[in-house]
# Entry
Amino acid sequence: MTQLLALHSRLGISRGVLVQAACYRGDHSALLAALHSTGGRYRGVALIDGDTDEASLQALHNGGVRGIRFNFMGHLPGERNLVQLRQQAERVRQFGWHVLLHGQIGQLLPVLDAWHDLDVPLVIDHMARVNGCLPLDEDALGALQRHLERDKRWIKLSGVDRVMQGAPGPWEAALPLARRLLQAAQGRAIWGSDWPHPNIQGAPPEEPQLLEFIRAACGNTANVEAVMCGNPQILYT
# Structure
């Protein structure tokens, strides 16, 4: 945590979000301790399952957690049954939390279709892990854009190095994708550095370059302010 806070200080970042690492599963003690150390400046995203009771959810909320994450990537553990996952999503609605969906676009579209009527904010992680080194699948991307145009459907414009399959920055080839997703989710786009960049191809990206990319994707000061400040304030209140 000391390293992260020092990095954010150098980058001019005063607030942030910590996502529970998959290796910790349901043990949130390290996450809660880290959040407590920031005096409320940072929020958290948890990993829960059917064994997580109401008292534990309340403790997570009191400790600064504002969302849960569902992993659909094959190398990560986690429930895949959409009925059971929806039950977990509906449980956290009472706290005003969101659900962060981590997977590739082909894995996430069936989830978004099945949960079209779910009255919980859904945040698509890492630009839906679209492969930016291949021609875009316009049918799949169009379907994602239509979902993002709906209320309570968000996009995280993070993980550009993952989208570009580990290629070094500045990732100009990924700008059209990021801009299309930003346009589809006006007022519901956020950014994250993905530090410390686990399970990636290639060398870890340089954080200043990641900031340069999101600023270029936003295109103007108003969009930068929304993505970096205004939108996350709404999601992580």
Summary: Residues 221-235 form the longest helix (15 residues). Strands lie at 16-19, 42-46, 65-71, 98-102, 122-124, 153-156, 189-190. The chain has a mean pLDDT of 96. The two ends are 22 Å apart (CA to CA).
